[in-house]
Structures are given as structure tokens and as C-alpha cells.
Amino acid sequence: MSLRLVIADDHPIWRDAVERDLQSAGLDVVGVAGDGEKAIRVCTAVTPDVLVCDLQMPGRSGVEVTAAVVPLGVRVLVLSASGEQTDVLEAVKAGATGYLLKSASSAELVEAVQKTAVGEAVFTSGLAGLVLGEYRRTASDTGAPQLTERETEVLRLVAKGLTAKQAAERLGCSHRTVENHVQNTLTKLQLHNRSQLVRYALEQGLD
User: Fold this and answer.
1) pLDDT of 99-116, one tens digit each?
2) Which domains does the chain have, with CATH numbers?
């Protein structure tokens, strides 16, 4: 099955190069955008599997775009020149599944897109430890990881034994949106599978 992608970057030469690399790998680029507002409009219209998104764009930043499209069931791979801690953490907190530096090779980009599409967190070497360290620090400071209201709702339904499809029907959203929330929750809680997630929910009295 070919993955459907949208590319958002305000530099047309770079955007075209990324598009060629992804299409050469057999991936289907169904839309492009040169600013944040258009990126949101395109993702809303075509609902791609993955949005490959720059951080610094006119109109709306990549972080704002990420926060807007993740609830639609779109997974986001940030492709940025910045490896600054603040940029990486803001992107992840907004819902990005992966974060890759623009210095990555074409093969690394294609692999990152494929992993992002199935909900696997992927980061340029060195950035994963940064993100994990921040979540650990946050958990230590607050006494517990901070889940959003919707993540807590999904966690409660998972603990009750509902499948992703059943939870989606209950919440009035897509199957993919529920899976995204589950993946984000696993990352925040530093867990590896649904069994551990259910155990955590039971321990927290969320059943």
C-alpha cells in the first residue's frame, strides 16, 4: 500500500527535492504547501498518512500546524534545520511522531516517513535521548506524566477493553486518531505496548 504524503516547506527548491526523493521511493505525494495555513487546508482536504513539515514557515509555524492536523488523524514528521532542544520538544508536545534534521540522507528520510506512518517514534540520532530526558524530568517534577483530556479518555476506554475501532465510534473520531492518541500516551508514559498501558490505567483507577 502506497503511503499518501503532504510536504510543507516554504523553500520551493528544497520542497521539490524532498518530493522527488519520496516519489522515487514509491511514496505518493498528494499535496504540497509553502506556508502553515495552506498546510492545514491541504491536510484537512486530503487527510494524508504523513505530513512532512518544516518548523519555520509563514503564517503558521510547524508546531501550530502539527497541533492542528494531528487531531485529524495525520501523523507528522518534522523535517527541520534546527536541532535546538526547545524546537524539538515543542514539536513533540504538539503531537509530532518524528523529528528529522535536514542533514539526513534521502534513505534516512524515506525510512523515517515509513516508520512515522505506522506510529513509530523516529528521531535524528541524539534527539531521542533529549526527548526522553525531558519526559522523565517532567514526570519527576509533576509526580506523573501530563496527559491531555482526550488522551485520558482514550486510555480509559482502552482499559475497559475496547478496540481502537470501538473507541473511535464511542468518541466520534477516526480509528487512526485513536491510534495516534494511544501512541502519544505510550511515549509520554514510557511504555511499550497496550498491555502495559492497561496495567497503568488500572493502577490509576481509570477503568
Assistant:
1) 999 999 999 999 999 999
2) 4-124 (3.40.50.2300), 144-203 (1.10.10.10)
